[in-house]
Amino acid sequence: MIPRRPASLLLPFVAVPILLALAGCTTLQSISILPTAGSVILTGVGQTAQFSAFGQSQMGNGIPTTANITTSVAWSVSNPSVATINSAGVATAVGVGYTQVLAQSGGQVATSDLTVELPSSTTTTSTPSINVTPSTATETFTGETTQFEATGNLTGTGSSQNLTSQVQWISSNVQVATINASGLATAVGAGTTTIIAQSGGINGTATLTVATNVASATPTLTLIPGASSASFVGETTQFIALGNLSGGTATQNITNNVAWSSSDVSVATVDQNGLATAVSANTTTESTTITAIGTTNTGSLLTATATLSVQPTGGTVGLPVLAVYMTGLGTGTVTSSPQIACGVVGGSCTGSFAKGTVVTLTETPATGSVFGGWSSNCIVASATTCTITMSNNETVGAVFNP
Questions:
Q1: Residue 40 bridge partners (DSSP)
Q2: Is the pLDDT of residue 10 over 60?
Q3: Which residues touch 83 (CB under 8 Å, ≥6 apart)?
Q4: Is 216 helix (H, G, I), strand (E, B) or coil?
């Protein structure tokens, strides 16, 4: 007779394959959209276009796989006055213009675009052109930035479009100023340079003068928000450093140019991008001081502080909060889609959104002011808009300068 093996001895042999099967998990690595950017032009209100999203995923160290995830991503557009898009990726033309199409899932974002050209806007043909604004600008110290925008039409038909992200940006004298792919110019030294926006042999130009002999103001550094609260362990709060370490009157986002620290790391930590994480699990409210330290152009240190409080364990977990702050010495407005509860932002405004919501902010400077840029945690769709995905509490700074 063959002795029977106790059932308890068989469990390890049964459990091992099950554990191995559960050892890997599929992770979404990237998203792509078809049709690609520049492919879709609609010519009538109500006309539709189908966008499809494809996700590349990988399980552990396995071979990546690609699947159609059109119906499982969050679809949105940057300009709903041009077109809308539903949950199935079907875009519908609303009015003349250009809009960016976004697909978001699992922290991954992909973009395409769509142009609407109605017959009434294409009855005449003009010469293809690019216009750069501002046409002239002056910077007064090394490191100061100016945002340039390109508008026009590369085909000679249809309405004027925002071409900022479609052109190649060039500075004729990089010893005076450099310019990046988004049209943001940075002063390097005294002199004058021509800023060129170029595409397919079509050029638009502007003049940038750097006058470093102009008296500069006292260096400044401030933090937003000045005080914040976390309601559970692991909740994050984005702090943003604004000011001007070189002097001058223009406020800049310097979040990544300062050193960050937390006075009590048992309450919350902060990384070098200004992102604080609550770690306290106490039964009473605890606070820590978040400090940013910057070095001025004379070598002296400049500090700014904010307070982060962590509520007792067991507090209510709410929806992620988006806080938008207007900064700088200029004035303007910021609107959002989806709409922030208090509408037009004036000073600061907050709104709560479900996790994964893609929020698009649009800036409009007042007469006599210029837009100085968004905080670095934005996914910038263009020079005038900021797109951010609500994965946790988010802070966005919009800078307006005189």
A1: 114
A2: no
A3: 42, 77, 91, 92, 93, 94, 99, 114, 116
A4: coil
Using CA atoms, how far residue 402 sits from 20, 112, 359, 361, 391, in Å, is: 62, 34, 27, 21, 34
Residue 105 CA to residue 55 CA, distance in Å, equals: 9
For 242, left (φ over 0), alpha (ψ -120 to 50), or beta?
beta
Please name the residues in contact with 280: beta carbons below 8 A apart, sequence gap of 6 or more.
233, 266, 267, 268, 286, 310
> What is the distance between the alpha carbons of residues 377 and 171, in angstroms, rounded to a whole number?
26
Could you give the CA distance from residue 231 to residue 103 in angstroms, rounded to a whole number?
Answer: 30
Name residue, tokens 């029977």: 4
Torsion angle, alpha carbons of 313, 316, 321, 326, to 10:
-70
Residues of the chain with pLDDT > 90, as a percent, come to 24
Helix (H, G, I), strand (E, B) or coil at 36: coil
**Distance of alpha carbon 378 from alpha carbon 86, whole angstroms:** 24
363 has pLDDT over 80: yes
On whether the CB atoms of residues 74 and 104 are closer than 8 A, the answer is yes
CA 353 – CA 356 distance, rounded (Å): 8
